[in-house]
Amino acid sequence: MSTHSLYRLVNLYLQRRIDKDQEFILGEKTVKTLRLSVEARNLLLEDFRNLSAIKNPIYNKWQGWLKGDDQHLQITFDQETASNNPAVAYIMPLHPLVKQAAEFFKTTNKVYTRMIAISDVLPQSDYYFSMYYWKLHGSREDHCLKVIADTDIIASHIEHLLKDAIDNTVYNISDTSKEKWKTLDDNHYNIWNKARIEHIEKNKRIIQFQRESLSTSHKARMALLEERLNNSENDSIRRMWQGAIVKAASDYTRHIQDLELAETKADIEFEPVAYGVLSIRSEK
After folding, report:
1. Helices 3-18 and 96-107 meet at what angle, rounded to 10?
2. Are 157 and 125 in contact, with CB atoms under 8 Å apart?
3. Beta strands in 82-224 (DSSP E)
4. Other CB atoms within 10 Å distance of the CB of residue 140
5. Residue 146's Cα: distance from chain center in Å?
6. pTM (2 d.p.)
7. For residues 160 and 180, what is the distance between their CA atoms, to the nearest angstrom?
8. Neighbouring C-alpha atoms within 13 Å toward the C-beta of 271
């Protein structure tokens, strides 16, 4: 998932979950400030507790901040910035905040909205768009939001425009043609179907590479263990190496089974999240 996609996913989650039309992620630089009131943190804490229980420093620090008194948390979506600033929370796909956002959009009702963006380059008009939550399965799990526009003119700009757009008012589906939403769904299906086929093929190549790499390392490991077994004369030492050989064979079988499972479950699940109208207006 790209840095921009992560930002959009988290930002939209915060606005929808807290139900306030304001910015919660502040700052233009790579190190940003997440500012949440105690009420907002309590809402996020509810979602955090619904995640699968995982004990690691990232989860513990996130839970500690949600439960604490400080309403500010320094965060970054940039890997290099995170490496140079260990005290800054790195918001990447495995961070619980991202997982909470993904789960929220997996279960929430669709949203209909109208937004306004300023541009002196694009034609001033109303453009329809839709947003879908994608969950990618396979050799690794991933999440993203996919935005679809109704015209080619706006398609290549839609994600950037939505990032800086301002909510105007809740947009009632009865106020517009349902055919627009159906067209967007049809366009999305074609894009999703192509992406799904490419994802499955890419996953097969990754799994094949991992399988070959695993086989090579396993053969080298077994050769070393068998050599040590053959060079050992002490019975207790021989039993130790025999046990290591059995364990190595078991580990290899388990890893191969995991790869086979990852290959069979390769897929992209999707759910519609939001439909809306983006009004392009001139700054002049």
Report:
1. 60
2. no
3. 89-90, 111-118, 126-137, 142-149, 166-170
4. 10
5. 11
6. 0.62
7. 22
8. 13
Question: CA torsion angle for 210, 212, 214, 216 (degrees, to 10)?
Answer: -150
Token output for 139 = 């050799």
Please give the single-letter amino acid code of residue 71.
Answer: Q
Check if the beta carbon of residue 146 is closer than 8 Å to that of residue 102.
no
Q: Letter for the amino acid at 43?
A: L
How many whole angstroms separate alpha carbon 279 and alpha carbon 281? 6
Give the model confidence (pLDDT) of 124-182 as tens digits. 888 898 888 888 888 888 878 888 988 888 888 887 787 777 776 555 554 556 788 88
Q: What is the pLDDT of residue 109?
A: 59
* Residue with token string 């306004």: 116
Residue 70 neighbours by CB distance under 10 Å: 10
Residues 6+ apart with CB under 8 A from 242: 229
Closest CA to 3 of 82, 56, 74: 82
- Find how far residue 182's CA is from the centre of its chain: 26
The string of pLDDT tens digits covering residues 240-275 is 999 999 999 999 999 999 999 889 889 998 888 788
Residue 76: alpha-carbon gap to chain centroid: 15
CA-to-CA distance for 277 and 281, rounded, in angstroms? 13
